[in-house]
């Protein structure tokens, strides 16, 4: 093997370790800032909600892709219809537990969600008392909900059908 190739391969490994470490540090500092700004408990509830929504959305999209594939039709809008997942509540609970505590790979930019929550809980940052409305929907932050829904639906169609073919 060429010495230049060995150097390049070694440098790539070192660069990868350093860059992933830096990214993880940035994400950890972002968690610290969020917990300091909104409180450790609010951060923990928010992160748990985010992971749960991701698990439910993935299941929702998977179900829609199955239906669209079997009916040989495209998905009109991934947000247009709510699937009843009450029947799969045990499956959802297991999927959420797995998502919260699955082992992080060395390529992940974040620690496991349970570790992130444990870390910010130790900080015990208090929640601010005024000016926050936790009931506000995330959609209110977006100017054009329909455009976002169209782009997401297009992305699901491209990637979903590609995976299933």
Please, could you describe this protein's structure?
The mean pLDDT is 82. It is extended, with a radius of gyration of 20 Å. By secondary structure, the chain is mostly helical. It is 68% helix and 0% strand. It has one domain (3-164).
Summarize the structure.
The chain is mainly α and 165 residues long. The protein is built from five helices and no strands.
Blueprint of the fold:
Blueprint: H1 3-38, H2 40-71, H3 89-101, H4 113-123, H5 145-164
Helix pairs in contact: 1-2, 2-3, 2-4, 2-5
The largest pleated sheet is described as:
none
The total of beta strands comes to: 0
Mean pLDDT: 82
Strand content: under 5%
| Category from helices, strands and their pairing | mainly alpha
How many structurally independent domains? Answer: 1
Low-pLDDT windows of residues: none
Euclidean distance between termini CA atoms: 40 Å
> What order do the helices and strands follow?
HHHHH
Radius of gyration: 20 Å
Shape: extended
Binned, the helix content reads 55-70%
Sum up the structure in keywords.
mainly alpha; 68% helix; 165 residues; 0% strand; extended
